[in-house]
Amino acid sequence: MIITIDGPAGSGKSTVARCLAERLGLRFLDTGAMYRAIALAVIRTGKSLNDAATIAQVAQLAQIRFQGNQLLLNECDVTSEIRAPEVSSGASLVAAIPEVRYQLVRLQQEIGREGSMVTEGRDQGTVVFPDAEHKYFLTASLDARANRRLDELSRKGIPGSFEEVREQIRLRDERDEQRELAPMKPASDAVLVDTSHLPVEDVVQLLMRQIQT
Ligand code: DC
């Protein structure tokens, strides 16, 4: 069984997907982390995040794999590093490059063939797993999402202001929604859930009830 959870940054999809996977005893796939790893690989080379040809080359050489909750880039643990704000913006730039998407979509589908899982991202229900048994699209107001991201950053000791974080998310949404290939959008058969005023536990319960009926 494949369960897809798509949605914008800060909609709660990662937390919900991880929790759901744990309770249902399924694997969890964080596809955003894969785009982040490619962005980090590009940043490390010092090359521009606007140079599509170079990014495609870097992506081709990058080896990405999960080991438990860790993400390995060329066999090195980059789990924390990929959460830095510059990697977040970089990820949405590399995610618009067709070669990068083809490569990561193939890898995601390979992981999906190994068995049941909960997978989260932007295009999981639309492009990567169009035949998934359960599809969700989580949304929340921009302010609610910016506040969540700010809390997350402050827990990690990363400084940031509400306005700055809100603007970064807004720009990222715009890029993710407007790119030509696999733009962020709900699948026509996805269930939409607005999490602006819902605690994580309520969202998890809602999804669990639907999946188990
Ligand atoms: O979910 P996230 O914030 O970790 O994702 C980082 C970026 O990667 C996001 O701005 C858009 C991109 N992304 C994507 O295009 N497709 C996915 N399936 C997952 C993420």
How many DSSP helices? 9
What's the architecture, going by CATH?
Answer: 3-Layer(aba) Sandwich
CATH superfamily: P-loop containing nucleotide triphosphate hydrolases
Oligomeric category: single chain
Helical content band: 40-55%
CATH topology: Rossmann fold
Give the helices and strands as they follow along the chain. Answer: EHEHHEEEHHEHEHHEH
The CATH class label is: Alpha Beta
What does this structure look like?
- This protein is an alpha/beta fold and 213 residues long.
- The protein has a single domain (2-196), classed as 3-Layer(aba) Sandwich (Rossmann fold).
- It is 53% helix and 16% strand.
- The protein is built from nine helices and eight strands.
- It has helices spanning 13-24, 31-45, 52-61, 85-94, 98-113, 124-128, 142-155, 162-178, 200-212, and strands at residues 2-6, 27-30, 64-67, 70-73, 76-77, 117-121, 134-139, 191-194.
- It has a five-stranded parallel sheet, sandwiched between helices. Strands 3-4-5 form a three-stranded antiparallel sheet, covered by helices on one side.
- Strand 3 and strand 4 (70-73) form a beta hairpin.
- Helix 2 (31-45) packs across helix 3, helix 3 (52-61) runs parallel beside helix 5 (98-113) and helix 4 (85-94) packs parallel to helix 8.
- The protein is globular.
- The relative contact order is 0.21.
- The model has no long low-confidence stretch (mean pLDDT 95).
- The structure holds 2'-deoxycytidine-5'-monophosphate.
- 2'-deoxycytidine-5'-monophosphate binds at residues 9, 31-33, 35-36, 88, 91-92, 95, 121-124, 172, 176.
